[in-house]
Fold these 4 entries.
Entry 1:
Amino acid sequence: MNWYLDVLKNYATFGGRARRKEYWMFILFNIIISIVLGFIDGLIGTYNIESGFGLLSGLYSLAILIPSLAVSIRRLHDTDRSGWWLLIGFIPLIGAIVLLVFMLLDSTPEQNKFGANPKESFAY
């Protein structure tokens, strides 16, 4: 849970680096929260079949948009890539696969142009 809260605390920090664990724990908690909110939307009747969103899950998606972008950019920085690589996701299928590979790659072990290695500074 600390990984998720750390990302929310740095919600608009696009500089620096983010470890794999920080990124993937944030994604895991987002998936769990989205499933729970979707279930609640279905129970209280605020789910819209046409849009695929409910009121609560839609508000959550909007609230988490900037922190998601920020942690994704920091994760790309950790692999010594610019945040502009996120735009490759607009290419159908290939872009998603390339981004997935980038997010799965290990950190550059030394300091890079985006900052110090976060593995050396975290004690989780």
Entry 2:
Amino acid sequence: MARDLLILITPGFPDTKLSPDRLYYCPQCNIVEGLLATFPELTEKVDVMRVPFARPRPAVIERIGEENQGLPVLIFADPATAPADALAHGETCFVSNIDRLCELLAERYGIPYSH
């Protein structure tokens, strides 16, 4: 049975535009990383993929298109279960807004969420 997919940027990446001597992280992806660390059982319910920071991001493009490379993203395994406010690329439905993504993780997978 296919599972929903979370795609995150691998933390601790260099950004030569800012400083080649430092490592950076995506603040929104780190929110999701914190959820995964706090609720490790989430990884038994949803697939997680981490991709490099640099664009283009082929793993993202092949799923939701070149115009949707912003991360994090939650891609729904079954478009029929996607919420009405989900974005779509062809038949693939997804959410990339961090607040909505966290709400959906709570709703779909039973982790606590307070905003």
Entry 3:
Amino acid sequence: MLGLEGKRALVTGAGTAGIGAAAARALAAAGVRVAVHHLAQPEAAAALAAECGGVALQADLAEPGAAARLPHEAAAALGGLDILVANAAVLLRKPLADTTEAEFSRVHQVNLVAPFALAREAAGIMRAAGTGGRIVITSSVNQWMPNPGLVAYGSAKAGIGGLVRQLALELAAEGITVNGIAPGTILTEINRARHDDPDWIAAKLALIPANRLGRPEDVAGAVVFLASALASYVTGTTLTVDGGLSLMGSRA
């Protein structure tokens, strides 16, 4: 029913124990061979790639041109590319007054420009193959919900929402769907330092109607759905995976 057996995917930002790694494992469990992108985790990425029947690829997406190379490297290693999961991101928590132009630009380069370049090149590969494809881009509930100290991160994620819709419009006729996923508070490496802070946990739980923090696997399930045949008529949308956090409006 999923129609994923034998497909080939590139998942970026899968070198740490977070959403990317969970998505790679979930896709592999559905029969997908996965190229695992990492920044500086060669051993973990190699182990995950072996687990997923694929290959590990290293790139610093803050470097111009790095993102554009990745889909081609993945396609060369896997014999084609059917699925792109553009998940890699960086988080900067700084007040507006302390955020430099260089910091703002780097966050946008990794979180918005890189997904654009990844999608452009992946779409070209899928178009040439003539068999359609799936592009899934990880956004955040912060694309709609501003929070203090996230001027760079939040604005980049807001850009993802527009990027998804624009790409979807241009690629729909070629059988390539493009969708976003907006996670809420997920226990990943980005916030690992706070995992054992009971005050932080309590404050987050007070804002989440589901009364639990998210797990990477929660987001991975959404990735598999959007990459599968079940979502062949779903494009240009952003699926929120947040336990109801965004229902709380500005309080979150």
Entry 4:
Amino acid sequence: MATAKPLPGPLAAGSFTIDEGRLLGLSQGRTRAKDLHVPSRGIRVPSGVEQSLLARARPYTRLGTADTVSHFSAAEIHAFKLPAAVAGPRAPESTRLLHLTRTGSAAPRRRGVVGHRARLDTSEVVVLQGVPVTSIPRTMLDLAGTGTLRLEDIVVIADDLICQHSRYMHPRTARLPLEDLVRFVQQKRPVAGLVLLRKALDLARIGVDSPPETRLRLLFGRSGLPAFEPNHAVLDLQGRPLWVDLACPEYRLAVEYDGGHHLTPAQQHADAVRNERTADAGWRQLVLNVFDVRNGEDWVLVRVRQALRAQGWSG
């Protein structure tokens, strides 16, 4: 059996269209060789090539139609904090396939693609490494309109995007300021997802470092507890700030969510020092972790209510 002729360098690196192959000298027979995978008509992928979603999507936007990567595909490219139900290994195929939006009379229809049709303003499309992708605000709007994500899921995404703070050694800059997102929804005409996105932005708060912190804050808010603020600064006895994940200033209760990195010896030492400084400042500290969350909302609320009552809350 004859060995297939090596591909030109640019084609060996990842997905390409048949037209791109022909421009670099590939014959029709070579495009049908067994070392090339056919994910969809007009597209070839060298076998065994590892590539990003952005690289995999590129040739789909080079087939002569004005298609833009959108919805769940754009969300993955923008590194949104999506729930495991739509982004994990057990996610439905409809969220894992490539999502493309076309401005026109018909949505894209081809194997491996979930097609959408919408009128995209030029400001709603960004070009990343030569690939048109819906912007962060437009992608949030599209996701809100799918009916797949809950209000809480959209707030998690928003909190992560707008997070900014100047914590010592761990500062963060917002990927997109909250006012830019608010301005985007204010300027949009009624469209699917707009109401849900507006509600989510009303609940979003600056300074939240992780999805569990967002979900805990929303749980406290809908459960009749006193108000909790994210990224609150508690001053220790030396006047130095202690940044609290979720703070109830009225009852001087600090709630910390400790993720997996808190299991290292160095972090455990730092946490012990933090706990001492918090107590010396006259605050009670409640530490929650993944095991508390897995035990369910009722378990978490019992622990928080007990801590608040110990601080004088009568609820």
